[in-house]
Structure formats: structure tokens, C-alpha cells
What we know:
The chain has 476 residues and is of the alpha+beta class. It has helices at 16-28, 119-125, 149-156, 181-187, 203-209, 242-259, 269-293, 299-343, 362-376, 383-393, 400-411, 420-429, 462-474, and strands at 2-9, 48-51, 55-62, 67-75, 80-89, 94-103, 142-144, 166-169, 193-197, 220-223, 232-234, 431-436, 439-444, 451-455. The protein has 13 helices and 14 strands. 24% of the residues are buried. The longest helix has 45 residues, at 299-343.
Amino acid sequence: MLLFSTLLSIHASMTPDDFIQLVLEWNRTSSYDYNVIPGIEWHGEHTVRYGNDTLWLALEEYQSRNILAARYEKVASDGVVWDTDYVMNFEERKMAVRLERSYLEEALSVEPAFSTPHFITLLIQKGYLESDGDLPVLRTPMVVGEDGVNLLADVINGKCRYRLPVVYISRTYYNALPVDAKRMAGRLKGVAHVLVQGDGSLNPKLAAACEDKNERYGAIGIYYPSRAVDHKRFLYRVYEGSSDDLMEKVIRDVIEYCNAQMVDALYTWQGVSNALLRENLEKQQKERMTAELAREQTQNETDALIASVDEDLNRMKRQVEELTRANEALLCENQGLRAKLRAKDEVPILYLGEEEELFQGEIREMILDALSESLEHTAEKTRRADVLNDILQNNHYENIHEQRERMIKNLFRDYKTMSGTLRQELQKFGFTITEDGKHYRLTYYGDDRYHTTVSKTASDRRSGMNTAADIVRVML
């Protein structure tokens, strides 16, 4: 599962040795001793591995493309596998930072809080990060004062250049911040820019400069560099825990956007490993061709070499296939998990009790039916009416009850006897039909609490409509 992904522009002053030393410093200075790989002695190698099977750090150099890749992997005691990758392309002066979490079969279900790698802080502290277009990459919020009004206006009006999303936090009605802006900026370092309204008195100037499109009174806006992604606005609501809830919503939305961006394969550990394997395969194939040309001169020596090369080729091909399958599996997993993350924006109001749904969406529609009925008897332009209407609009109310009621009434409108067609339609509707003397017994989804009877032969034209009325009253 991809937890975190970003692509950063790196200053020309960083050398390959600087990159490696920074990776080693990141591990050596970890806040948690159990994450530190002991006994690392670096002697200038660009391809090397340290540690053991459950805690290791590896470096790979792809010389032909001037790329250095580092992977740190930790297998926790509960089976959770953590992978942190740093891939530096020195030709393009860009670095990918990725954090992934996967599981072994014996892994327990865990949901740790997300945290961006401390490595990005080291990049900022040492001055290795280039500005993101018109905005510097910081781990602290940028305060928008009198001199920052035009910058914010350019962001909101789409005139500012940047590649990372911009989060703008407005002041509340009481001139306070709705969230801990410093903490949010720390968690989003290297992923987004965090701008904070300096003072509530700036509202008139900001409104004029931003054509009245700016957030205010505690609302938070996310402005994405891609015009294909709509600007998001999160309103400020006062309740216990609202500040933390608001922060998590914003952070989740930003991280989900960043993780969904397409990344070139050579900015991933697997992509670099695959490229190196392909390069080695090509080299081995050339050696084999040379050996075959010299076969007649040194038959015995070339046979041994060819056998060795064939073995290496088969081994490398298997590695490529395994890496490709693993990569495809992770891509599928990420797509599914992103869909689940998007669904988490919906906040549950009620929880299900012991009753099971007889068909998908039944209980939800019943609750929405009740709200719709209540709304019809509620005075307009009242708080209750606004809340009920808001819930109905945001839950895709389909009024299934009315549709099913109409269907039942149509089926029994001219009822005379249980025809084959009527029996099929009732079974599709969820009824089990059994004979009970001179009547048919209709049981709703096999639940004996909900049943009615209908005569095998109708005595008058109202018989069918009475049955339909019973079904609507008791079962729908």
C-alpha cells in the first residue's frame, strides 16, 4: 500500500556522495533506536547493502542514466513490511520519496498514523530543495500578511506557478486558526505548501484581491496545480475534536492526490532494479554472441561460459517477472485502497442495529424515507429543514419505497388468479410462495414475521388491491 509519494526538485550542489551520506545520516539519526542499522561503514561504494533480512538498507547505481536509488526495509515483529525509497535522478535533478507498507501472511491488522519521512527535513535544512515554481518548499506555514495578499490572490486566481498543492487556512470569526497550522505544515512537508491568513482584519483586502473567491471564517481551501482537479473547500465547524477532524480530512485529501500522480518507473526502486536487470541481460547476451563466434577456437572454454551465462539469464528473467508481478499487484491494491479512502469522506450519522437488510440499500432507504416525510411537514427556512434537506441531497436518495409500492400495486391491480407470470414477478420481488388451503401464502424474503395471503381465485376486483395494501403497509 502506497502511503506517501512526492517528487522534489533538487539543487545542483547535491552530488552522488552527498545523497548517499544524507541517506546514511537519516538512518543513523532516527528517533527510534530499533530503526537504526548498526555497524554501517561506508567506503564510497554506490552499490552496496547493509543489515539483515528483517532490517536492511541497499543502494543501487544505474550509471547509464545517472540515477542512484536507496531502499530501506523493515519487517516488524507483527509481520508489517515497511519500505522507504529515495531515488535521485542527477540528470533531471529530481528526487522521488516514497513510503509503502505491505504485509506478510502472518501480519496483524494495524493502522498507524501517517508521518512524512524525516529525510525531507534534512533536505530542507541542508538547502538541497529548489523552490516549487513561485513558492519555496518549507516545513513551516507561510503567513499571509499585508505583503502576501497578492501572492495568495495569484494562487487562488490561477496565476501562480507551483507543482505541489497549496493549502490555505483562513482565520475564524474570532481571529483564531481552525487547526494547528505548524503541525499540519510539518506533516505535509514536501507534499504541499501551507499558507495561513495572518490576521482577520485582512478579509476585505483578500476578498477584493481574490475576487471574493478566498476562504474565510476558518474555512480551509486546497488549490491543486492541475486544473483537471477541482479546488476543495472544507468548512470550519465547532464541536469537540473538530480541529483534529478537519486537519485529517485536509491531509488525507492532499496525500491521496499526490499518491495518485503518475510516476516514471525510473523514479521507483523496482523500476531502477528492472532497468539494471535488463542492462545486465543485454550485456550477457552480447557476451554469449561473442562466445559463440569463438566456439570453434576454444570449444571447451566457451561451453562452460555459455552454460554459466544461460543460468544467469534464466535467473535474471525470473527476477524481472517476479518484480513485474509484484509491481502490478501493488498498483491494483493502491487503486482499491484509494477508492476506499475517497469513501471515508462520508461521515456516518447512525450505526446499524441487529436487523439485517433483506436487499441492498433497504435500511438506508427506509431512514431516508422517514427523513423525507419529516421534511414535508417541516417549516421552510428553518434549521431542521436545512439539515434534513442536506442529508437527503448528499445521500443519493432514490425513493425506492415509492418505486416498489407502485410495482406491487400494478402486479395486483387486476388479480384473478396466480398466473405463471405473476408468480415469477413476485419471486423476483423477494416473495416465497406456498399453498395454504384455498390461499397462497406470500412470505417476504423468507422472514416469517412478514407474510400475507391471497386467494387462489379472487372473489371480487378488490381482493388483489387489498393484498397489495397489506404488503405495502407491513413489508415496505
